[in-house]
Amino acid sequence: MKTLLNRLYSDYLMPSRLPEYEALLVRAGQRGYRQLSVRDFHHAVAQEAALPTRVLVHRHDIDSDLRTARKMFALETKHGVRASYYFRLSTLDYGFMRAIEAAGSEASYHYEEVATYAKRHRMRRGDEVRARFPEIRELFVRNFMRIGEHLGTPMTTVASHGDFANRRLKVINHELLSDPGLRRRCGIECESYDADLLRHFDVYISDRPHPVYYDPLSPFDALGRHERVCFLTHPVQWETNWLENTRCNVVRLAEEVVWHT
Questions:
Q1: 84-133 pLDDT, tens per residue?
Q2: C-alpha–C-alpha distance, residues 109 and 188, integer Å
Q3: 54-79: burial string, b at 16+ Cβ within 10 Å, e else
Q4: What is the pLDDT of the chain when averaged over all its residues?
Q5: d(CA 18, CA 23)
Q6: Radius of gyration of the chain from its Cα atoms, rounded to whole angstroms
Q7: What is the pTM of this model?
Q8: What is the pLDDT along the chain (261 residues), one digit of tens a residue?
Q9: Measured between alpha carbons, how far is 31 from 18 in angstroms, rounded to an integer?
Q10: Are the C-beta atoms of residues 37 and 86 closer than 8 Å to each other?
């Protein structure tokens, strides 16, 4: 019951946390942190000498709620902050994505072909899914290339989306990109979960639903304590959007029902 009440509060009653997000941007700037996209940080790591002493990397996974994502982008633009925005097929907005790129931030792909394929074909075993990886990789390439053509800007980093199907099957979408040939075909330099990227951070923080909000600690507490911080956020955790949250809940329920029938 408590979990359900927390979910209802998060989805429909929670006051906007965007002032808190803006306060973080300001605080990080005051503490001397360069606030960069994943792409910027990856390039800085490759150059070594260009890597800032203090850095806060902003990664936004746009699972849903484009309205709040635009508000977060407006705050970042106001304060001269760069960030990465990863869009699912269901949240693609090319006008918004081009505006992100024009501002010096990054817009790219939040992919989920493994989960999508498994749900579509009602697969319930991880080994069944992995056996179809060649076909799933081709599906990824088609989606990736189509997005790049519409966007008009090369996408050099991507981020795996996590779905209930991935958790049930114990197969993550990131496994697709273990193939170097696939990366070369698409021009992908880095996946946001690559160990070679993550090892350069002192701490990796993700937002969480009410009442936790952050894991493993608040980004405010990380500032000053850690030099290189990666902060993953999801717009849905920062402001309620009744229509969008209801739509997502209905879709999730329908997918569960179909997958088990």
A1: 999 999 999 999 999 999 999 999 999 999 999 998 998 889 999 999 99
A2: 11
A3: bbbbbbbbbbbbbebbebbbebbbee
A4: 93
A5: 9
A6: 18
A7: 0.95
A8: 668 788 888 888 899 999 999 999 999 999 999 999 999 999 999 887 678 899 999 999 999 999 999 999 999 999 999 999 999 999 999 999 999 999 999 999 999 999 999 989 988 899 999 999 999 999 999 999 999 999 999 999 999 998 888 888 899 889 999 999 999 999 999 999 999 999 999 999 999 999 999 999 999 999 999 999 999 999 999 999 888 888 877 877 777 776 766
A9: 20
A10: no
Contact at 8 Å (CB) between 207 and 60? no
